[in-house]
Amino acid sequence: MVRLITHNMLACHARNCTKDNFPLVFSDVELVVREAELNPDFLRRFLPKLDWAALVDTARSLGDTALPDDMPAEWTDAQLQHLHHVLLEMHVEEGNMTCRGCGHVYPIQNGIPNMLLAEHEIAR
Ligand SMILES: [Zn+2]
């Protein structure tokens, strides 16, 4: 499954693709929401690893506009709950992730991203 917590770590890995290779841009997405148990400690520990701007852009591209432009310094329970929802409960089941740098399309089918590259795209 592709959740935004995973997507936030994914950059294009095609050979010579080093510019605009993150975040990958979703299109033709089929989104499913599955409730998960909130773990505030996990979320707080994860915050420093997040690329916030990429997360906000991506969430907005999927229709979720409630994340603020800047990462809150102090989190309310409601904000943390919403972050939990965006990171861990939104699942992209079908769709594409496109690299803005090289245009490579990584398809997602049945919740599984295909990160494989063609021979000529592989770094050596
Ligand atoms: Zn690329």
UniProtKB/TrEMBL annotation:
Domain of life (superkingdom): Eukaryota
Protein name in UniProt: Trm112p-domain-containing protein
Pfam families noted in UniProt: Trm112p
Record-level GO BP terms: rRNA (guanine-N7)-methylation; tRNA methylation
One Gene Ontology molecular-function label: protein heterodimerization activity
CDD domains the record matches: Trm112-like (cd21089)
Family indicated by similarity: Belongs to the TRM112 family.
Gene3D superfamilies xrefs: 2.20.25.10
Complex formation: Interacts with TRM9.
